[in-house]
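Note to self: keep these together.
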Amino acid sequence: MNQLDLFVAEAVLGIDTLWGGDVMCPSGVGRFIADSWFSDEPLPAAYAHPTAALLRQSGGVGAKEIDRNAVEAYLRAVDLPAAIAGLRKEAANCPESRRAYLSGLAGSLDVMWDLAMEVLGKGDPVPYERSVVASTARPPVPSRPEAKRERVAELFGRAGYSPAQPGGILDAVDAWRRERVTPMASVKALGQAVIAHFNALAAKNLVPHLPPELAQVPRANIDFLPIKDAWFSGSMNYIGRARTDSGAPLYEASYEINASLEISYPEFEQLVSHEVVPGHVTTFAYLQNLYVRGKAGFEATVLTMNTRAATLFEGIANNAILIAHGVTEVDQLPDEDLQIGVLLALLQDDAKNQSSYMTWGEGREQQEVAATLRRDFLVTEERASKLSGAWGRHPLLGRMYLPAYRAGTDKVAELRRRHPAAQVLPALYGCNDLVDIETIDLVLNS
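Structure:
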C-alpha cells in the first residue's frame, strides 16, 4: 500500500468504526458504512487498534446510549481528521478522474465526521443540504410520485384490481401483493431460480458490451439468508475474501432478507436484479476483478455508503432489471405484472427520498411522514414505519443515504437514454475508471 492507499484505509475504516461498523463482520447486522474489504492488505490501525474493538462493541456514535469513554479513547488513538486531510492532499496528485473521485470521497467522509461530532454535542448542526450534496452531488428536492402512481393505477385496472373500488389504490396494491406474495420460507430456493434467470439475461444483454476479461467473472456467487426482526428489509454483504487454491477470488457474497418482508414475486424479481445480478454483487465482483488485474485503485476495494460512489451503485442497481432485459424504460419490460413490481419498487425508493426530505428538510413528525409514504408512494405499512423511523430519523442514513437511491436511479436512467450501451455500460461498471455519480460524466465525455 502506498501513502494514498493508507489514507483511504484509515479514513474509511475509521469513520466506519466511529459509527459502530465492522467491515469484517459477514453479516449486515454488524456492518455499517464500509461495504467491503477484499484487498488482502493488512487492516489499518483505524480498525485494528485495541480501542477500535471496544468502540465497535459499544455501537459507536450510532448507539442508543453512546459510550463516550470508548469514543474519546478511540479518537485519542486514531486521528481521523488527519487521515481525511491526507486523503484529500494525496488525491490532488492523481489524474483528473481519480482525483475527482477521491475528492468526492473525502468530502463525504468530512460530512460523516461532522455528523458524528454533532451527535456527540461537539460540533455545530450539519446543514441538511450539505449532507445531501456530499452523497449525491445535487441539492435535496422532494419526490414526485404522481406519474409512477398513475401508471400503476392504469396497470392495476387492466389486471382487474380497479383503484376505483372502495379502498382505492392502496387496497388494490395490497390485494395484488397478497395474490403474488413471495414465501420467505422458500426464499433460498426461489432466489436461486430468479438469480439464474437474471444471470442468463445479463449474459445476453450486458456481458457482450464489456471487456472480454469480465465474461468469466462470477456475477452472482451469493447465498440468500432469511433473518428475523431485522431493522432493514435486506442487506447485501459482499465478502470477496475467499480464494481458489491458486489465489484467485471467488467473488462471494450473502444476502440477508427480512423474514417479515411483505413482497410480491414481481417485486422480488426487481430485488434480485438490484441486489445480485446485474446489480450490486455483479458491480462489486467486476470491481474486485479490475483491482486484481491492476485496472482499479485500492479505493475500489473498500467501497463506502453515504458517498457519491454509493449513489451511482444504487442507480445501477435500480436500473439493473432494465439492463438485464436490454431496455431503457419500464414500459418496455415484457410483462405488465413485472412492470407493476418495478414501479412499486421505484416508488419505494422515491419514498426513501421523501422520508429524508420531510424529516430533515421540513422537520415533519414521524407519524405524518409514515402516512405520506403509505398514501402517496404505496409502500406497505411495515416499510412506511421503517423508512420514516429507523432509517429516516437516523442522523446519518436519513440525511445522506436515503436520498441516494432516487438520485442515482434518475442519473443512470438518463445516461442510458443518452449513450449507446457499448459506451455507457463499461463506464458504469468501472471498466474505464472507478467512477461515482458525478465523475461518470468525465469518463463518458472524455
